[in-house]
Amino acid sequence: MSFFGVSGMYYSGESLAEHRIVLAEDSNLFSSMVSKRLKELFDIDVIVCRDYDDLQFAVENATFPASLAISNINLPGAENGEALNYLIEMSVPTVVFTGSFQESTREKILSKEIVDYVIKDSVFAVDMLAESVCRFLTNHKHHVLIVDDSPTARALLTTQLKRYNFRTSSAENGAAALEILKNNPDIGLVITDYNMPDIDGFELTRRIRGSYGPHQLRIIGVSSSTNRLLSARFLKAGGNDFVVRPFVNEEFYCRVNQNLDTLTKIRTLSEKVGVPAKASA
Questions:
Q1: CB distance 144 to 161 below 8 Å
Q2: What is the mean pLDDT of the chain?
Q3: CA 222/CA 171 separation, integer angstroms
């Protein structure tokens, strides 16, 4: 099966029917639209929960755990966001699907460490939700390397990427990063800090590009510096993107997705024309 997402995602692979998805939604219209769309696109059977009691029953009496939950912020019996708290407490990855959204709402739901949120504000909302679901269920196919000399920064990025279901490795310096890349040819994305003691982000990028072209590996640079020339220098060194700390969560995830989407499309095209995706640049 194949799927083209609204934001540019392309998925071509096996059915996702083995995944169990719980949908906590009291609107008959949206529950029907979401269930039908996920079945059409990915052959996923959705378990619809109309209220908080239904949700608790579906989660606690399942024969195997849900891969993902899709939940409105408020449900009958949980009018103050209790459903989201419950899903997080039960360690169920959750995408919020909501019609009401303000800055305070955003901060509230992101503080609960959800996977993503989609707003019911356009005709594309259900397809955006389908894309978010597909990304989460398939992100494990992507291996991301985090390079930063700060243990705290590495831990934060690792936690965030694992929340999105990516596989991760981490390195405390450039030399370790090069060794990890050598031993893990499946790594498709490197996220590297600029300011590191042994090999800075620019030099690491140049060395990586000596062995891996942009059709094989994507590189995102990060820095907390206010020097606006850093992004230009990084891109000139062979980087594909640059993000300034502190991150806006949604922007960071979108940048990661866009780079991996590009890589997936290049690899798919390479396979069609018979060009090895992992040949040296």
A1: yes
A2: 92
A3: 15
